[in-house]
Request: fold
Amino acid sequence: MPTRSPSPNVARSAIQAWTAETLLAPLRERCARPGTRLRQTSLGMFHHGSDRCELPHFVLRGTRGQDAPVRLGLFAAIHGDEPEGAAALRDFLLALDDDPAPAQGYEIHAYPVCNPGGLARGTRHSPAGCDLNREFWRGSAQPEVRLLERELAIRRFDGLVSLHGDDTADGAYAFVRGATLTEALAKPALAAAARFLPLATGATIDGFPARESLILRCYEGILCPPAELRPMPFEIIFETPQTLPAPLQSAAAVAALHAILSAYRPFIAYGQDL
Ligand SMILES: [Zn+2]
Reply:
């Protein structure tokens, strides 16, 4: 999620082949199959100039536990030059559809392409020239931000995970915010990611003080739940090093998401006491 990219409106040639259509095609095919737990919808359509954009939304409901399902919001590619996160959400949902046991008790809402115009161009910023991840809850007029803010307000997620890539990092790391248990979820997520990637080291990562690859502060205006939401959801912003192969980054993010489902499960029984 760093801001240091020298030319956020300039596409990096290596990722120009990615589009939402090619990235999400396997998910859309799966949604059409009989017996799938996956459902696809859209937060809405909007235009950037003559370009028509759609913000896709996928839902996977695990088998019900004894209580109301835990609602998770998973977000990726709000920076259009970070398609690895979108690929990770696609692969995660397909894996859960193949084997839904880890999703039991969860209702998973995934938004794999939060900046569809930027993804199509391979640019960090939206076609309007905005870093969308600095615009939340600040009265933004950007259509992507307004659609996502409305969704965040309606869904009242119990937990949020945002996937990002960092082309300046030497390893994976995470920002943790929100509920106090967030750190207890982020640690096993990083441990799972470490099966595929090195973890970022050092006392400073992305300009923030860090400890054990975790950062407790964050930028202002990032995609996050409404400030007044109680109980506070957990919030993890998971970053992978973009200098390493994209399949490894996606595999690490999928492993991290599985670890979060597993690590949160013991807390579910306590429900609203968290
Ligand atoms: Zn990012």
Summary: Strands lie at 38-48, 51-61, 70-76, 106-111, 159-166, 173-178, 204-205, 208-211, 214-215, 234-241. The mean pLDDT is 91. The two ends are 28 Å apart (CA to CA). The domain at 13-265 is CATH 3.40.630.10 (Aminopeptidase).
